[in-house]
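Q: Please design a sequence for this.
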């Protein structure tokens, strides 16, 4: 690592900062909060990063290019909002591809009941694996308009649109039952998956719902909401 050698690895600093941003949001989080999480003084953290902007940059850089942290000179400089959004977009382009859904939108290669389960499984797995970073982006988006545009306008709307396209094609072909509004149905799937795979962990009244129970329940009930009586070929 170039520059001053820090007593704590930068990945630990990034992880601590990520947890604080998720808890407090970007505006509410402070350098002292992250320092306290690491057991450092407020001033000591400035030997790692120059600012709160640098902390968010570091968190996203760890998600996108984890090996690059070893090459950063200390203290890590901040980044403008465009760079922050570019890192978040790069991560999404790499991790949020959902190839099963993409293939299902092109053509059907399996019985529709199996296909729909596979689509729901893929979406659930993506949210479950990445819920901490998704929580970070969603929490900080409230204070960073550029990040909000990426997360809510570009990515979530695009996902709901792709899922609606899939459902609409299967309904038109007679493989899934008609629903009152396809776009609302697609949003129902996304929000149901998001709550059980992620947001339930933020609900103090949902501690009794374990990962396996949540996953298998969604896997069973969401496809059943769209399948025709007796199943479909």
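A: Design:
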């Amino acid at each position: 690592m170039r520059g001053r050698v820090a007593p704590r690895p930068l990945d630990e600093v990034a992880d601590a900062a990520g947890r604080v941003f998720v808890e407090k949001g970007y505006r509410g989080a402070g350098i002292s909060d992250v320092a306290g999480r690491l057991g450092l003084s407020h001033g000591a953290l400035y030997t790692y990063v120059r600012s709160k902007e640098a902390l968010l940059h570091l968190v996203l850089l760890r998600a996108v290019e984890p090996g690059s942290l070893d090459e950063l000179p200390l203290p890590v400089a901040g980044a403008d909002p465009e760079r922050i959004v570019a890192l978040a977009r790069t991560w999404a382009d790499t991790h949020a591809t959902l190839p099963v859904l993409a293939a299902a939108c092109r053509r059907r290669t399996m019985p529709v009941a199996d296909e729909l389960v596979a689509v729901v499984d893929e979406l659930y797995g993506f949210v479950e694996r990445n819920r901490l970073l998704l929580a970070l982006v969603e929490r900080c988006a409230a204070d960073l308009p550029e990040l909000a545009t990426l997360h809510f306008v570009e990515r979530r709307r695009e996902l709901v649109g792709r899922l609606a396209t899939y459902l609409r094609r299967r309904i038109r072909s007679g493989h899934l039952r008609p629903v009152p509004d396809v776009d609302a149905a697609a949003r129902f799937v996304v929000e149901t998956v998001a709550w059980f795979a992620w947001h339930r962990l933020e609900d103090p009244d949902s501690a009794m719902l374990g990962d396996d129970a949540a996953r298998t329940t969604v896997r069973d009930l969401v496809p059943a909401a769209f399948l025709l009586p007796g199943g479909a070929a």
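Q: Thanks. Anything notable?
A: The chain has eleven helices and no strands. The radius of gyration is 21 Å.
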